[in-house]
Amino acid sequence: MNGSFSVPQSAAYPWPLLMPKAGMIVFLVAVLGVLFVLDILLGSVHIPLPSVVSILLGNGSESVAWEKIVTTIRMPKAITAVVAGAALAVSGLQMQTLFRNPLAGPSVLGISAGASLGVAMVMLASGGAANAIAIRQLGLGGSWLIVIAASLGAMAVLLVVLSVAVRIKDNVVLLIVGIMVGNITVSFISIWQYFSAPEEIQDYLIWTFGSLGGVFGSQLAVLCGVVSVGLLISFATSKPLNVLLLGESYARSLGMGTFSTRVFVILATSLLAGSVTGFCGPIGFIGIAVPHLARSILNTSDHRFLMPTSCLMGAILMLACDIIAQMPGTQTTLPINAVTALIGSPVVIWVIVRQKNLKSSF
Amino acid sequence: MRESILKTSDLAIGYRSRTRKDLPWKKQLHKGETVVAEDINLELGSGELVCLLGPNGSGKSTLMRTLAGVQRSLGGSVLLKGSDVGRLHPKKTAKLLSLVLTERVMTGNMSVYSLVALGRYPYTGLMGKLSQEDEAIVRLAIETTGTRPFAHRHIGDLSDGERQKVMIARAIAQDTPVILLDEPTAHLDLPNRLEIIRLLKTLAREQQKAVVLSTHELDLALQAADRIWLMNRSGGASSVMLSAIPESLVLEGHLEHAFTRNGFEFDSHSGSFRFRHEGKWNVGLVAAGIMAYWTQRALERIGCRVIKAATDIRYVEVEGVGSDGCWRYYTEPGAEALEFRSLDDLLHVLKSYRVEETLH
To answer: Given B126, B154, B174, which is nearest A239 (Cβ)?
Structure first.
């Protein structure tokens, strides 16, 4: 490298590579592809693999019903799983680094709580069971109402947290404020539930179980659009997030704009987590777990590689959970929220115990 | 005088108390400013190694933060290459001044190499991709600090000394004319401390960097620093700043004044601190050279007041050097001598004599 420097033992120590092995990414993409097809293949109605592949390739199939099931139900659901998994994982990664706290996740700033409040307001305040049923019968329109309410709720909490972020310089304090705002929001919901009729609460509870199956057509397009914008902002924050790992003082001394970084990260997180929560309900676990898995498997702290890997792994985990939630071969489905935690937690524990490099990530 | 890279004029440092807008109930309690030190006029030239000394609480860290532009000054100005630090864009400051802080960076999964590479942050593009030149600078910084053997290891797995060298490598990779280090030798053992100071000295000499480090290592600072900035609370509320070469600080008694406490004294000859022994039991000592020096220290340690070359009271006479040494103790002038082959034995007997005499 540099001729003027002669450190005799240098040759014995090869320079480490900043790039992790590309093979891992290829492997993850392959797994994602297989699971995507598997998610579409498996369900309560049996459709043979050749037909599924043929429909996916746009060649149609012998059965119109099959084609309809795949293109209008299973495909949107699989795409939703991929988008939601990627979005939640990336927002979790950002939160963990911003707050330098391994327990942080997209729900930590009260974003999920805000979305829940919005939904609760629509469902519980719409006055009487008749109205709630009317909303459900509205179908698409009703769902839009819930999506908009959830997004507005998430945004309201976000604005509160952002206004605090402008004044407070300390990220730990901001984290506590976020958690407290979330608590306040949750208590609003509790009070609301307490004074509501049981039927209304049931609707709300079903929403909190989470569902990937309710996003079609234009809704899916909006979800994909919002998540793409969020991911784009997230990828652009990779560089400042890398120096944030050294702590805020070092980051500032390296010329990082503390304020702009924080605003962009919070904005991206709320776009990602807010939209997914609005469309699919509050899906827990993915946001906290996937960043740890990505760090553990890649053995790096570089966000330029952790971001895409988290995207892939979040999508993979979400698809896997969805496959299990469908209980292939049976007529029942499980709530996705229960499955993500039930299946995901042991996986994470296994990886952490096996890799042993997770300690003191921050 | 060489051209100065960093210059402060009438700088006042300290904290602004909060305004009413922030904390309404505190308005009555805190009003105005807490001045830590004022009238600070300093100049820093390239190639200079400056040690910032001062007792705890004298405002060393506050000064460091103010110089780095992280904290706002209360008055006066800090000029970094002619432009005001307070108004400089953080990105520009980052190309002129780098910091090594006391906080421990323990990020898991981050390798030494990628940490040092973060030093290139102000120079890289949106995604932080290192150019070949960047990479060459990172590698040079690692070679310079001797951290290459563990460049692939994770930060969390390093010892304190190794980690400090890595943090300095990161500052070098930032490629700034000024490097500020806040207590870089804290928590390190003596060889590591010496190595860090030697490294910084080399940096200043060979790469013409201006290096400022705050430290409590008085003797190391006196040996290595080209100039010492001494902060001292002298009675008043705020600290007074002195800037001078180490030798004149000692000769003019400033160090003694700043650091002397009850029970300690600053030895102007050796440039280090020692206990002040207040022995009352007079003992004469007849010895020469190194044997005299260490025998005196031993006697003072057990509470004797040593009177050199006195033979008219109880006295100790030393002969020979090192392991051939022989100590003779005369309980009074003309008395028969007790002979000892080791200092330990002498002290042992002296202690019992002293106890017996003070009891009677």
So the answer is: B126
Nearest Cα residue to A275 out of A226, A318, A317: A226
Q: How far is CA B97 from CA B47, B138, B171, in A?
A: 14, 17, 9
- Closest-CA distance, A11 to chain B, in angstroms, reads 10
Lowest mean pLDDT among A21-30, A55-64, A256-265: A55-64
Instruction: Name the class of domain B4-262.
Output: alpha beta
Percentage above 70 pLDDT, chain B: 93
pLDDT in tens, A311-338: 999 999 999 999 998 887 777 888 888 8
**Using an 8 Å Cβ cutoff, are B35 and B52 in contact?**
no
Test the B interface: residue of A172, A246, A295, A299 with most B CBs within 10 Å:
A246
Cα–Cα dist A115/A121, whole Å: 10
Rounded mean pLDDT of B104-108? 75
pLDDT at B22: 47
Fold of A22-37+46-355: ABC transporter involved in vitamin B12 uptake, BtuC (1.10.3470)
B176: tokens are 């700034």
Q: Range with the lowest mean pLDDT among A102-116, A181-195, B137-151?
A: A102-116
Identical fold between B4-262 and B281-359:
yes
Q: Look up tokens 């006055």; give the residue.
A: A127
Q: Given B93, B109, B127, which is nearest A299 (Cβ)?
A: B109
The two tokens of residue A306 are 């952790």
pLDDT of residue B28: 43
H or E element at residue B155? none
Segment (H or E) for B25: none
CB B40 within 8 A of CB B229: no
Measured between CA atoms, how close is B157 to chain A, in angstroms? 11
Q: Is the pLDDT of residue B317 over 60?
A: yes
Cβ–Cβ gap A253/B98 under 8 Å = yes
Chain A residues with a Cβ under 8 Å from any Cβ in chain B: 1-2, 5, 7, 9-10, 13, 15-16, 18, 167, 236, 238-239, 242-243, 245-247, 249-250, 252-257, 295, 299-302, 304, 357-362
Contact between B121 and A245 using a beta-carbon 8 Å cutoff: no
Q: Could you report the per-residue pLDDT of B173-193, keeping only the tens digit for each?
A: 999 999 999 999 888 888 888
Of the candidates A16, A239, A249, the beta carbon closest to that of B151 is on A16
CA distances A87 to A90, A148, A221, A226, Å, are 5, 18, 15, 10
Contact B151 A15 (CB under 8 A): yes
pLDDT at B310 over 90: no
Q: Which CATH number fits domain B281-359: 2.60.40, 1.10.10, 3.40.50, 1.20.1530?
A: 3.40.50
In this prediction, residue A217 carries a pLDDT of 78
Checking if the pLDDT of B271 tops 80, the result is no
Mutate one of A98, A99, A253, A307 to test the B interface: name it (highest B CB count within 10 A).
A253
The CA distance from B66 to B269, in Å, is 35
Q: Which residue has the tokens 């939703």?
A: A80
